[in-house]
Predict the 3D structure of the following.
Amino acid sequence: MAYLGNPKETIAVLQKYGFNFQKKFGQNFLIDTHVLNKIVDAAGVTKEDLVLEIGPGIGTLTQYLCESARKVIAVEIDRNLIPILQDTLSEYDNVTVINEDVLKVDLKKLAEEENGGRPIKVVANLPYYITTPIIMGLFEQHVPVESITVMVQKEVAVRMQAGPGSKDYGALSLAVQFYAEPYIAANVPQNCFMPRPDVSSAVIRLTTHKNPPIQVKNEKLLFDLIRASFNQRRKTLLNGLSNAQNLPFSKEQVAEAIEKAGLSANVRGEALTLMEFARLADVLS
């Protein structure tokens, strides 16, 4: 069996099947064994683990995961890749390939059935255009996930890790940090992929909090407030929340809540910590 993960083997497989890259699926295959090992190490995959891989491509990372995990479930949207995966993964009896859009798969049910409800590990070289919906979907649907180790656009990784006051801090930073502890495990240059992407990448591991770092009465309201305050970054928190279409509060109610939450009247949303947003949400709910 040929190990993928280097340009020569990857090209051979693509030529054998006459495969063409699909721009709409954001396909960039890894061709660097060093980076592949780094991803598996960062994810801490062991023989106890069920791993969900999103977007296996031609099976490059999947082969590495199969060597380390108890079982791998790989969800691939592009049906042209299915015969290739049957070939490149033919030596492994611990992998199941599902030809489906991951956003339409009931991942909670999958984890229940395949892993008896125990937390799974998610590992992926994600298509960058759906990074955020996939990660947020996993958290918001409360899929039992121990960690998510993914290749993402470098600036997205930086945003996930950012703290209050920095220009990268935003709704994504707060949402990720509400559910998990982010850690950038590696920066990955463009020449590690085929075709070569226009942006630099990074491997980030999100380790799910056993207990959330904050308690909040109404999780949905918390995220509505966060989104509204960053939709209009330049405005004060008071104006941002008063003008938000999806929030039912008057300017007076917002002003009173800001004061009750112990915040300054002209504070901007980008200066608030997760804890302060939660305090404000609790006052408003």
